[in-house]
Design a protein that fits this description.
With about 110 residues, the protein is α+β, with helices and mostly antiparallel strands. The chain contains 3 helices and 4 strands, in the order αββαββα. A 4-stranded antiparallel β-sheet has the order 2-1-3-4. A hairpin with a 2-residue loop joins β1 and β2. The protein starts with a helix and ends with a helix.
Length: about 110
């Protein structure tokens, strides 16, 4: 968000050539995990330390994965649990992307 704001400022000041768009998209990141058998989004510290599985997921604004990093803390996790966590993470990233777009629209209107 800060970078997009800085680019918009530089474009207004004509420090970036007209028609050039240095930013090609957005990214967002969330944590997900399984705590007590329940998949959770955006783990707080207390949930994270109790998680059977925890994962960090970074997505582009169009839903592609930049990073997926997950760990089974005690017992290995099943493929269906992985799919559930990825679905939850993508939903969280999609929501963050919507908030970013709203905020960016405000910044770019200045």
């Amino acid at each position: 968000m800060a970078l997009a704001d800085a680019v918009a400022w530089a474009q207004r000041k004509k420090l970036i050539k007209a028609g050039r768009q240095p930013l090609t998209g957005t990214v967002s990141a969330v944590s997900v995990g399984i705590v007590g058998g329940v998949p959770l989004l955006d783990l707080c510290y207390e949930e994270d330390v109790k998680a059977d599985t925890d994962m960090n997921v970074v997505c582009t604004g169009d839903g592609r994965f930049v990073e997926v990093q997950g760990t089974a803390e005690a017992e290995p996790f099943a493929r269906d649990e992985l799919n559930a966590l990825l679905d939850l993470a993508v939903a969280g990233c999609t929501e963050l992307t919507a908030h970013q777009r709203t905020a960016l629209d405000t910044v770019l209107e200045k």
